[in-house]
Amino acid sequence: MNDQRADSMVIFGATGDLAMLQTYPALVSLVERGVLDFPIIGVGHHERSREYLRDYARKSLQRAGIDTRGQSAARLVSLLDYVAGDLDDDTTYQAISDRLGERRGTLFYLEVPPSLFGRIAEGIASVGRQRDSRVMVEKPFGTDLASARELSATMHKVFPEDAIFRVDHWLALESLENILYTRFANSILDPLLNERYVEHIEITMAEDFGVADRGAFYEQTGAIRDVLQNHLLQLLVSVLADEPRLGVRTWRSERTRAMQELRPLRAHEVVRGQYVGYRDVDGTAPDSTVETFVAVRLTSDSPRWSGVPIDIRAGKCMPVTATELTIRFRPPARDVCGIENFGQMNELRFRVRPETAMTLTLAGKRPGIAARAQTEELTFAQQPGLDPRPYDRLIGAALDGDDFYFAREDSVDAAWKVVDPVLGDAAPVHSYQPGTWGPGEADSLLPDGVTWHDPTA
Ligand SMILES: NC(=O)C1=CN([C@@H]2O[C@H](COP(=O)(O)OP(=O)(O)OC[C@H]3O[C@@H](n4cnc5c(N)ncnc54)[C@H](OP(=O)(O)O)[C@@H]3O)[C@@H](O)[C@H]2O)C=CC1
Ligand SMILES: O=C1O[C@H](COP(=O)(O)O)[C@@H](O)[C@H](O)[C@H]1O
């Protein structure tokens, strides 16, 4: 693969939900930045006109609060073309190739049902369009370790690894970049991030909504595949990974190593839950055991994190929508100030969703005659709304051939290895009421005396 900018783009699934929600708003921002000014061919299954796709894009922009009469929006819409066809049929790829004409160096964006990913790669190759091109592939990449490997092997028959851009949109979140900066733009924090100082690491990902109209998708997926294998393990390794000593470009390698050092989960390290009402959602089975909540206890084999318990929980229909990663430090070796009764005091917290923030909890003296401690929080908060949208970054980077925000094959493989043993019904599923923090059984994973962090607090 070359590192030249793409000169054309083909979107498979241009009339889908994700395109409506994310793709067109991101494309406008790229037009606005002057980095996108070439034909974009949208591909869908149904016979429709180019005008239909242009209207679809306008609706998407309106939905995102973007003025469709603005210069960039109008330009984007004018760049869109439409090809209809079944992606299981080689003539569809011939039609796309004819439309691309002399252009070489195409970014093919695969936002279609994952079962089509491999077939599309073969279709692109059948018309010789893989040369000098890249593919950007949506999640999920596989449904377990074996299928992810099989898919990688199929894709590699057509594209070298450096031409495959696997999307995990959390990798492009401002809040994940903030973790990198916080750790390595300060000299005072990273030296503390190891088993000597850290007592416990915890992540809570709470969403106050259910599976909505995605019942059929979720029924095949569940929380482990949907968010643990990808978003949450990628978030975790942002904290576990060693410094990228050879420069920030090696950050993906360090993160991958940290992923490979995580031990595969065992059934007793997993608690699964399902909210009451899930089985009434269209597309779910009346006796479904798919989890909408998962809590896990993880262990890293890295000497840096030896013996540090790592707990993660994620759920739908929780009391709030927020994701935070909390690092709890050990108490001081000698309790000179008599803080014992205070419990745990030093914490470093990264807020990942809905906005970017970081908090360091320190103890100081409570003003007054009595010798008593009190905690203070130092918070570095981003103003909500200032975070760039992840897809603006992702599509822009893929057009440039910049793989920084994408999940590499070995890291996806390592993440599947962690969750593979506990997919399906390896652990029983407990029901929980919507609006609660999930089944109480999740508490049993935590170290004695520790409670889950409440991200609303
Ligand atoms: N929706 C979301 O919020 C998210 C989605 N994703 C991933 O993005 C991908 C797409 O999801 P989503 O947009 O929700 O899916 P949708 O079902 O909404 O859209 C699917 C798209 O693929 C096209 N398509 C489906 N089958 C064929 C076929 N045989 N031949 C040609 N075109 C076909 C459809 O065309 P037509 O309209 O003509 O039927 C449509 O454009 C999936 O991998 C999903 O996991 C990832 C994160 C979030
Ligand atoms: O990929 C997914 O992610 C979202 C959470 O990501 P966010 O960017 O919306 O916070 C999750 O709700 C969804 O179930 C999952 O498919």
From TrEMBL:
It holds the Pfam family G6PD_N. The keyword NADP applies. Its EC number is 1.1.1.49. One of its GO terms (biological process) is pentose-phosphate shunt, oxidative branch. It catalyses: D-glucose 6-phosphate + NADP(+) = 6-phospho-D-glucono-1,5-lactone + NADPH + H(+). Residues 10-178 form the Glucose-6-phosphate dehydrogenase NAD-binding domain. Catalyzes the oxidation of glucose 6-phosphate to 6-phosphogluconolactone. This is Glucose-6-phosphate 1-dehydrogenase. It comes from Actinopolymorpha singaporensis.
